[in-house]
Amino acid sequence: MTQQVIHPMVKLQRQVHSLVDSNILKKTDSLWKIAFLYGDEWVHWKQELLDFGFTMQDPVSDFLAVDAWDEE
């Protein structure tokens, strides 16, 4: 039996999707709004998002639309 490792961005994506489902965030909100919810962890997540080509002005919907988090 092999255990599959979930990419950290998948975990973040699930958390953000939950925030949208709970009406805490809107899909049209900019990614920078996540900073208010992640506090000290935001520096790490912001860098991860930037590394994947996002800007902090991109809508949350763009982040949620990613199907695979392949790193090359």
From TrEMBL:
A Pfam match: DUF4327
InterPro entries for the chain: DUF4327 (IPR025477)
Name of the protein described by the UniProt record: DUF4327 domain-containing protein
Organism name: Crinalium epipsammum PCC 9333
